[in-house]
Design goal:
Layout lengths: L2 E6 L6 H15 L3 E6 L15 E4 L9 H11 L3 E5 L1 H14 L4 E6 L9 H13 L5 E4 L2 H11 L7 E3 L7 H6 L13 E6 L8 H13 L4 E6 L5 H10 L6 E3 L6 H4 L5 E4 L8 H8 L4 E4 L5 H4 L6 E4 L3 H14 L2 H11 L4 H13 L3
Parallel strand pairs: 1-2, 1-4, 2-3, 4-5, 5-6, 6-7, 8-9, 8-11, 9-10, 11-12, 12-13
């Protein structure tokens, strides 16, 4: 049986952690002996992991303090493959393979574009990655933009080792479950817009509020619901009040049932400055929603490859307003089908198979 050691910081709610749990479950069902290693054994994604998978917590406050522990663990388990995600874990995985003096293959995964670095620590990580990453056996990127950033950071040596595979976001049965959904009819047509994401600078919600203001200026009834929490909530609430749109905007908080909620909306809106991949874009397409996105670096341009499933806009409120109306006007069963077919490209089964072939094809 093939032994796989997967290394991620924790089970917290980030997209990278969820992707690794999805992949671990998929590999386990394919007959792989999976050892799931974390530096901190906490987070909501833990309950999603198959109970039979071996979980090992290194109990470290920092990933970089786990080099010795992971080295010793690699010597003990003798995995055929070490598979990690996120820059800190990737650096430690490559070092652990080197110090363990084993023949394990090391596959690393990058899931985010590299924003402009400000702190000394981030710049140091970039410098270390530049010299450490070429020693991996394969690097998997979740979008062409992520690959481009890594090529710019590491250099030409990484190019032959890189492959782009979209995230395994949701299982096939979720997409199929939407087939029987019938959206309730509304007597007074109100455009219902939804966004999902943390209330942080990256998500650029003030631009979305400016779009809502355009709807109000044209006397078009609109409801804009945001599912997510974050440190900027008070600031964003104040901004809504300052431009007079508070009655149209609802901060709904975190929801564990977002997949059940999405079909009740008319359009999904994303106004981010950058994205890693954009799992919620895939979830929205799976629910049949048209998506309207800003042309930011990361996954959106990779996911939305056709105007039939959504629109990619500049950071202009009026253009976004126009595209929202256009997508709603053009919506029809054929476009809904196209969106679901695109979402199917990023299911756990479809992306999982690609990961399986890339990773275990090295043996």
């Amino acid at each position: 049986m093939i032994k796989l050691l997967m290394f991620v910081p924790s089970f917290r709610g980030g997209g990278a952690e969820r992707v690794f749990v999805n992949l671990a479950n998929y590999f386990y069902k394919r007959g792989v002996e999976v050892h799931f290693v974390v530096t901190s054994d906490e987070g909501p994604n833990k309950i999603l992991l198959e109970k039979s998978i071996n979980v090992i917590s290194l109990n470290k406050k920092s990933v970089y303090l786990s080099v010795l522990d992971l080295t010793l663990l690699v010597r003990k388990i003798r995995p055929d493959i070490i598979f990690s995600t996120m820059m800190s874990c990737n650096i430690v995985s490559i070092l652990a393979r080197f110090f363990s003096m084993t023949s394990a293959k090391v596959i690393i995964r990058e899931a985010n574009i590299i924003p402009k670095r400000v702190s000394v620590i981030d710049r140091a990580k970039d410098l270390i990655s530049k010299y450490i990453y070429p020693f991996c056996d394969r690097i998997i990127l979740n979008s062409p933009d992520t690959f481009e950033d890594i090529k710019n950071l590491v250099g030409y040596k990484i190019i032959p080792k890189g492959v782009v595979i979209g995230n395994p976001v949701l299982p096939n049965e979720i997409i199929k479950s939407y087939d029987s959904f019938v959206k309730p009819k509304q007597n007074n047509k109100i455009i219902k817009i939804v966004s999902v994401g943390r209330l942080v600078k990256q998500k650029n919600y003030k631009l979305a509020f400016d779009v809502v203001k355009v709807f109000q200026d044209f006397n078009i009834p609109v409801i804009y619901d945001i599912y997510g929490e974050g440190p900027l909530q008070n600031d964003l609430v104040d901004y809504c009040s300052s431009i007079g749109i508070s009655s149209s905007v609802n901060f709904k908080g975190f929801s564990e049932n977002i997949k059940k909620i999405l079909p009740y909306y008319d359009v999904f809106l994303l106004t981010s400055l950058w994205e890693g991949f954009g799992n919620v874009i895939v979830e929205s397409l799976a629910a049949g929603l048209p998506v309207v996105l800003t042309d930011c670096p990361g996954g959106p341009r990779f996911i939305v490859e056709s105007d039939d499933i959504g629109s990619i806009c500049t950071f202009c409120p009026e253009e976004i307003f126009d595209m929202i109306n256009l997508q709603i006007q053009l919506d029809n069963p054929e476009r809904v089908l196209q969106r679901k077919l695109r979402a199917n490209d990023f299911t756990i089964e479809t992306s999982g198979e690609k990961y399986f072939n890339e990773i275990f094809g090295l043996l």
